[in-house]
Recover the amino acids of this structure.
């Protein structure tokens, strides 16, 4: 089997490459994906792609693995960044890391390397997730490390994409990956983990937003009273459930809604924020890795990357959408973001949040249209 290993320069993908060799894969080529933002946005923040490339090449050389650099700048813009900017302008919360995996790493990259001759059979990455294959079924299962589990970001992959995926570190905890990196004396063994969105490197997300959408000052209004509490620099900098970066006193305050046309951000104090938590919402753009689960089946979901899950049930809502009823209300349900569904340890798939459908009894109605900000 010929395997294309995506090597980022970080410790996870480097240990994944070592484990591939340990597991008996002998025909492996390592690839570093060079993306357009690394050059385009270099003036607004430190862009470490040269360091990434150096470490990726060093690891490949250490293991005597062939190494190639693939430039995907145009594809990244068209398939991920353009989508993220459109969502932000519309007042929604994009999930660019989900599309980074579905459209680029397992999408255009595969299209580029597979070719007519079928040069490669699989794509391997350093993601924390497990794959179980049974006949024609491919199950995506959570990693044993609940903090590092990355099934949220892989949930929009198709069964065909997962069928040719390999996650060599998916059964490990982060501490085990670090230990193996030291045992194998990898050159990046002590390199810190990358943070933030996949295509930004160390560039801060607000700087990315400001570069493309600029600033548009508007009012921050207390939802319950209508009082103007302060000023924001543009609704696209804020997302539902956000607490940091509002610049308001006597807090904590949370973003609970937005009015895009009026350029208003609504907030609620911590004492009242539970009143605007939603217990139901709608999802569309559904992708099921295998078959859709039966309606009214007890499931769990993630509204964002992280260990927390919420019990839920799904019901038809017309036009291919589903109504999601949660066991516990949540104040961070943001249209545009993805809800990811699980049956125990198995990730079933995901859908894009359309709008809050209802809230807890007695709470005010949330303005339709919500919030951008950091994805996940």
């Amino acid at each position: 089997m010929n395997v294309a290993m995506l090597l980022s320069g970080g410790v996870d993908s480097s240990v994944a490459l070592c484990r591939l060799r340990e597991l008996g894969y002998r025909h492996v080529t390592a690839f570093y994906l060079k993306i357009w933002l690394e050059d385009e946005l270099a003036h607004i923040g430190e862009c470490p792609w040269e360091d990434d490339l150096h470490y990726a090449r060093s690891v490949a050389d250490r293991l005597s693995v062939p190494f190639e650099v693939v430039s995907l700048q145009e594809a990244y813009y068209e398939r991920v960044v353009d989508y993220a900017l459109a969502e932000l302008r519309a007042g929604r919360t994009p999930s660019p890391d989900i599309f980074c995996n579905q459209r680029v790493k397992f999408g255009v990259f595969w299209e580029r390397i597979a070719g007519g001759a079928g040069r490669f059979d699989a794509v391997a990455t350093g993601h924390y997730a497990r794959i179980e294959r049974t006949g024609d079924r491919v199950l995506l299962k959570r990693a044993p490390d609940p903090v590092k589990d990355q099934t949220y970001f892989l949930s929009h992959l198709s069964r065909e994409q997962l069928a040719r995926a390999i996650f060599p570190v998916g059964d490990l905890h982060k501490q085990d990956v670090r230990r193996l990196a030291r045992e194998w004396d990898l050159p990046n063994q002590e390199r810190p983990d990358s943070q933030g969105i996949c295509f930004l490197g160390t560039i801060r997300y607000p700087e990315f937003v400001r570069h493309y959408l600029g600033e548009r000052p508007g009012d921050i209004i207390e939802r319950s009273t209508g009082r103007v509490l302060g000023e924001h620099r543009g609704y696209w900098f804020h997302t539902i459930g956000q607490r940091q970066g509002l610049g308001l006193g006597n807090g904590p305050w949370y973003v609970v809604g937005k009015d895009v046309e009026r350029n208003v951000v609504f907030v609620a104090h911590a004492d009242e924020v539970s009143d605007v938590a939603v217990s139901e919402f709608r999802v569309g753009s559904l992708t099921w890795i295998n078959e859709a689960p039966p309606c009214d089946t007890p499931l769990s979901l993630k509204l964002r990357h992280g260990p927390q899950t919420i019990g839920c049930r799904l019901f038809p809502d017309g036009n291919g959408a589903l109504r999601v009823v949660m066991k516990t209300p949540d104040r961070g349900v943001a249209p545009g973001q993805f809800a990811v569904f699980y049956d125990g340890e198995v990730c079933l798939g995901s859908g894009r949040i359309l709008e809050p459908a209802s809230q807890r009894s007695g709470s005010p109605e949330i303005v339709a249209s919500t919030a951008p900000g950091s994805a996940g």
The chain has three domains: 2-126+168-183, 215-273, 277-359.
